[in-house]
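Re: the 150-residue chain
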Amino acid sequence: MADKSPRLLDGLTSTMTYGQMRRYADTLNVTIGSALLPDGMTGFYDEATRTILIDRQLIYCQKRCTLVHELIHWQHADATRNGIYGARLERRTRRETALKLVNPLEYQTAEAMYEGDPYQIACELDVTIQIIQDYQRILDSSRMHCKAQS
């Protein structure tokens, strides 16, 4: 019988270190391990076994962001899929990962300090450039939506 209870990540915050996130994940119904993954693959989630693998060659900032990304796949019980549906799941997961890891006030401060430079902002917020770019897309989309409403 499949587990139908909601999977929540309420205890996961943007201020946690990778180690704190791993300890938090130990309280969830998911197994996390590290492995040497194929080139270009930083992490992987398998719904059938509820297992997350993180590439052991990543630096801690990358591991932290990858772990949150894979935990969001776990939260939604995503099965690996290709094609349009898989792309849709990946877009949703990247969006939610950025929202989970980026504190809006800290982002706003870093953006002003570094004049919008994604690399400097990422370093300041201890996330990858990809997370910052995804967050900036969310902001741009929100701004476009607001303009359309006015």
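Strands lie at 31-35, 43-46, 51-55.
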